Amino acid sequence: MSNPQQLRYSKEHEWLSAAEDGVSTVGITEFAANALGDVVYAQLPEVGSAVTAGETCGELESTKSVSDLYSPVTGEVTEINEDVVNDPSLVNSAPFEGGWLFKVRVTEEPSDLLSADEYTAQNAG
Amino acid sequence: MGRNDLALSRHALGDDRPMSSTELRRTALDALHRSLGATMTDFAGWDMPLRYGSERDEHLAVRTRAGLFDLSHMGEITVTGPQAAALLNHALVGNIASVAVGRARYTMICRADGGILDDLIVYRLAETEYLVVANASNAQVVLDALTERAAGFDAEVRDDRDAYALIAVQGPESPGILKSLTDADLDGLKYYAGLPGTVAGVPALIARTGYTGEDGFELFVKPEHAVELWQALSKAGEAAGLVPCGLSCRDTLRLEAGMPLYGHELSTELTPFDAGLGRVVKFDKEGDFVGREALAEAAARAQENPPRVLVGLIAEGRRVPRAGYPVVAGGEVIGEVTSGAPSPTLGRPIAMAYVDTAHSAVGTPGVGVDIRGSHEPHRVVALPFYKRQN
Hints:
The complex is a heterodimer. The longest helix of chain A is centred in the last third of the chain and has 9 residues, at 116-124. Chain A has helices at residues 30-36, 82-86, 90-93, 116-124, and strands at residues 8-9, 14-16, 23-28, 39-43, 50-51, 56-62, 66-70, 74-80, 102-108. Chain A is an alpha+beta fold. In chain A, a hairpin with a 4-residue loop joins strand 1 and strand 2. Chain A is built from four helices and nine strands, in the order βββαβββββααβα. In chain A, the strands form two sheets. Chain A has a six-stranded antiparallel sheet with strand order 1-2-3-9-8-5. A three-stranded antiparallel sheet of chain A has the order 4-6-7. By secondary structure, chain B is α+β, with helices and mostly antiparallel strands. Helices cover 19% and strands 32% of the residues of chain B. Chain B is built from eight helices and 20 strands. Chain B has a six-stranded mixed sheet with strand order 11-12-13-10-4-14, sandwiched between helices. A six-stranded antiparallel barrel of chain B has the order 15-18-17-16-19-20. A five-stranded antiparallel sheet of chain B has the order 6-7-8-5-9, covered by helices on one side. In chain B, strand 6 (104-110) and strand 7 form a beta hairpin. In chain B, helix 2 packs across helix 7. Chain B starts with 24 loop residues before the first strand and ends in a 9-residue tail after the last strand. Chain A binds chain B through residues 11-14, 28, 32, 34-38, 40-41, 43, 60-61, 63-70, 89, 92, and chain B through 1-3, 5-6, 8-9, 12-13, 39, 50-51, 54-56, 248, 252, 318-320, 322, 341-342, 349, 372.
């Protein structure tokens, strides 16, 4: 699997797109989706709610486990992916594309987001 | 995603024993699993396939077509000798002497206090030869108990864990697939029967047993024949849609079928009567058996004043009840979930749980599961969740 170069990554396996008009898209990586197995339920933050970098903002249920979803940045949620709410398997089939989770108007970024190469190296180690 | 969340839970798979520091054991099919891209998991000290691709797809393949499983971690113990039947009648709770040659029996081995040490399938291979199949996590315990209980009997208890690989073919297409590879009389082979035969040129004990709720077969073969047999079955099943299946879907298949898993629905803290499986205890068999006195008391207690009862729960919502979560009613804890998962067949989360008798009736209103602090409504249903049509 390859991690798209244009994205940045959290150590907790979320990806973050470059901001457009101050809004970034967030999802989980293919590495994370593979480790979870089939995602059957995604509880996403509410539109308009505030999220904080490194804090939980939702959860993902898979066959074997439930995992907290962490926000990679601080800001306000502007949109959630209703397609994923209706069909959580998109997280597995297209984690970097149609399986995105929410959009956030970023007010603050942590300093430790990783590049694609750094994130790939983290998972190899 | 929390980093630690990616460590897939061993508890979720039913092995609650502490992790061993020794290296994981690998089955004869290990290299094959890796070449198929399997995600592997530590299960009872064995490195086993968790899933090859989507566990949901694997689950549905077994329900509608066929699936191929490596179950070589299961613990085989051979009991032979003139008093093999007498020994097993003494050591186990079932009437093993009454099992006909070529047939199998689901049974349990209990402690003197009635607590369940393991649930077992016992095959009678010959008049004086039985094959006892224990759960991987309990194989040593069962072996030790049988060996100890064999004192005074003219019978031999043999550790045959390394003598067998075990491959299962499960699902409605499995008889057709197997028929193409063997001359054995599969039509004459009933559920819970086993006969020696040849499959794809490989000598095998062919058993019509399984842990999926579907028709299917379990093939006990020598480890050196495992790869050859697996490949022959894969090829023979290709057109019918057979796929390799991991332990993850095995767990959801057995849960839908309402089958207990040791470490979840069964434990040393419970007797077979507590688990709703008192029917496996045969008081009318010849001779005394380990646990008889305690089990007679447990039977009476279960009839007069049953403690908790094992029920099925179906979630009204989409959050998944997991093993260990409290079952609640009116804000009070009334039970505990023993197994829970999203059900591919039902399309919603399901669970088995022990609940107080007062709340155990089908349709009891107001029952919920405390899912990480939030009381989510669930419907009490009879087990199993799924029963095959034919």
